[in-house]
Design brief:
The complex is a heterodimer of chains A (313) and B (263). Chain A has 313 residues and is of the alpha/beta class. In chain A, 40% of the residues lie in helices and 15% in strands. Chain A has eleven helices and ten strands. In chain A, the strands form two sheets. In chain A, strands 8-7-6-5-4-3-10-9 form an eight-stranded parallel β-sheet. Chain A has a two-stranded antiparallel sheet with strand order 1-2. In chain A, helix 7 packs parallel to helix 10. With 263 residues, chain B is an alpha/beta fold. Chain B has a single domain, classed as Dihydropteroate synthase-like (TIM Barrel). Chain B has nine helices and eight strands. An eight-stranded parallel β-barrel of chain B has the order 1-2-3-4-5-6-7-8, surrounded by six helices. In chain B, helix 2 crosses helix 3, helix 5 crosses helix 6 and helix 6 crosses helix 7. In chain B, 46% of the residues are buried. Classes of the chains: A alpha/beta (313), B alpha/beta (263). Chains A and B meet through helix 6 of A and loops of B.
């Protein structure tokens, strides 16, 4: 007797969110079943991978990573163009790390200029990230939103401490936002409620559950994502229906496994292969938990993950 | 839990006059208010509507769904009006619900085939010609007859909403617990389970006005614990919808957030 796969139908559906403008705009989300189960439901959009660039040369990045971008990372505009043209990136994520008070502490105006310059150079969608200093980000992202007006960017990240300013400007400038809370499904729901109470539509939000690297807490991120997706699909909870984004590069490329040379730990083998594998595996794990968009760094990890997405979706 | 709004009915003077005069205003405003307060379905009670009931039902279904994008619970004993409503109903946001069939043979034979014909949901009152049974088990016997007729008419068991009928606590205190027990027993009768519905306010019928809200709310919580799927209530009564949301959170049906009452 032939085996018939039992199919589940869910009452909820992930919102579909479009980022960018023109022919290279991308859509994420829209699925009505668990990750990659195309036999069971609709998966209208494959997860998208955005390639990260920074607004200053990444002197703090590990050797393996710096090597991959050594000819282009001195200038964010050229770097973004390289990601789009040479690497065929679906989207670029610009991290305005220089604005952090403990780094170069650049001003919102300087950040806005970088954003304008990068937008002038590329036509794939742009994710604009602050330096993750909540107070400074409110001002930086405000300026960035205004500079990027009309390009439908994804602005991140709005957190409980600073969401009001960021949401207000994103609303005025017509952007989408990343709402991030600290690995807590109830706080994630609360933040989405607070944002929508400001008049920002719930289907313009993308949820960042706060990512973690493989071996350094990935299971926490994974289970929060599962619970968020479960509330969306099984409880038809509209506040939990935004698509999920994972900003993994920043977590992966500071762990020992992506930094320590083989000479320090011969059992671990060559660092380049190990590090690229670490980023790839982190990404793949989170795709299984429902990631609709990834922000990644190494070109080889990106290429492998995209190949696997195409295979699975 | 599915909240079915009860405010559009012939008993309320403004609504009755609006129905008689085919005046869209008060009906559409009430529909919008009920949905805003959390109603997932609206009960449209046109009464027996012996005179041109089918025309009235057709008009009111379209009037309400013009502004409220939810399914409707069609509440009338007039079979022609019921069918007119099912025909006019827009199923985009969910299927219509027939209010109601019962264990009483004539009513069952009149309404159940309509559910089969239009693929709608249907409420089954567990009473018959002898009245409302005393014990929960006897209500189940009537439920079994309703199930039989449903099977005959091609209505899936999951589309049946059984109503154990609530007796007022001031007059029949011992019956309050029976209705709660009946909810639990109904859900055990079939796999997949049939669903349940109640018209809540009857629990406090006859009690002093200031006592009624408290009785209604606490009774709702007890019924929800036993798995009540839906209730016909006044969604504009915020304290009641607050209790429903709170019970949903406590039972794990909705994810908690500090602002859960705002949703």
């Amino acid at each position: 007797m032939a085996f018939v796969v039992p199919k589940e139908t869910f009452s909820g559906k992930v919102f579909e969110v479009e980022i960018g403008t023109g022919p290279k705009a991308v859509k994420i989300g829209g699925e009505n079943t668990l990750p990659f189960l195309s036999f069971e439901g609709a998966l209208p959009n494959k997860p998208v991978v955005a390639c990260e660039v920074q607004d200053v040369p990444p002197e703090d990045w590990p050797e393996t990573l710096r090597e991959a971008y050594k000819d282009v990372s001195s200038d964010p505009v050229g770097w973004a163009r390289h990601c789009q043209d040479a690497m065929g990136a679906q989207a670029v994520a610009l991290r305005l790390i220089s604005t952090h008070p403990d780094r170069q502490n650049r001003t919102p105006e300087e950040a806005a200029k970088t954003v304008s310059d990068v937008l002038a150079a590329i036509d794939v969608p742009l994710v604009i990230l602050g330096s993750n200093h909540a107070e400074k980000d409110a001002q930086v992202l405000k300026a960035a939103c205004e500079a990027a007006k009309g390009r439908n960017c994804l602005i991140g990240k709005a957190q409980e401490a600073n969401y009001k300013t960021i949401v207000a400007t994103a609303m005025a400038a017509g952007h989408k936002i990343i709402a991030m809370s600290d690995l807590d499904v109830n706080l994630s729901k609360q933040l989405n409620i607070l944002i929508t109470q400001m008049g920002f539509e719930k289907d313009r939000i993308v949820t960042d559950p706060m990512s973690s690297a493989l071996g350094y807490g990935i299971e926490y991120t994974y289970s929060v994502m599962e619970r968020i997706r479960g509330a969306c699909l099984m409880q038809n909870d509209a506040t939990m229906s935004p698509p999920l984004i994972n900003d993994i590069g920043m977590y992966v490329w500071k762990v020992k496994e992506t930094i320590a040379p083989e000479s320090d730990l011969p059992d671990w083998g060559p660092v380049a292969e190990r590090a690229i594998g670490w980023e790839t595996t982190t990404a793949m794990g989170l795709l299984m938990a429902g990631s609709d968009m990834l922000i990644m760094r190494h070109p080889k990890a990106i290429a492998t993950v995209r190949m696997m997405i195409d295979d699975l979706a | 839990m599915l909240i079915i709004g009860e405010r559009i009915n012939v008993i309320t003077k403004t609504q009755r006059l609006a129905m008689q005069n085919r005046d869209k205003g008060p009906i559409q405003q009430m529909a919008k208010d009920e949905v805003k307060c959390g109603a997932g379905m609206l009960d449209i009670n046109i009464g027996p509507a012996e005179d041109k009931g089918d025309e009235l039902m057709d008009w009111i279904v379209k009037t309400v769904q013009e502004v409220a994008h939810v399914p409707l619970c069609l509440d009338t004993t007039n079979p022609l009006a019921m069918e007119a409503g099912l025909k006019a109903h827009d199923n985009t946001w969910g299927r219509a619900m027939i209010n109601s069939a019962s264990g009483e043979e004539e009513r069952l034979n009149m309404m159940m085939p309509l559910a089969g014909k239009y693929g709608s949901l249907i409420i089954g009152l567990t009473l018959n010609k002898q009245g409302i049974p005393a014990l929960a088990e006897d209500r189940c016997a009537i439920a079994a007859e309703i199930m039989g007729k449903a099977a005959e008419c091609g209505v899936p068991m999951e589309d049946i909403y059984l109503d154990p009928l609530i007796m007022p606590v001031p007059f029949s205190q011992e019956k309050s617990l029976e209705s709660i027990r009946a909810i639990r027993l109904f859900r055990e009768m079939n796999d997949p389970p049939m669903k349940t519905v109640v018209g809540l306010s009857n629990i406090s019928n006859g009690a002093p006005k200031e006592l009624r809200p408290l009785l209604n709310r606490v009774y709702t919580a007890l019924l929800m614990y036993e798995g009540l799927d839906s209730a016909i209530i006044d969604p504009l009564e915020k304290e009641m919808t607050d209790v429903i949301k709170t019970v949903d959170v406590l039972l794990g049906k909705t994810l908690y957030a500090h602002s859960y009452l705002e949703m």
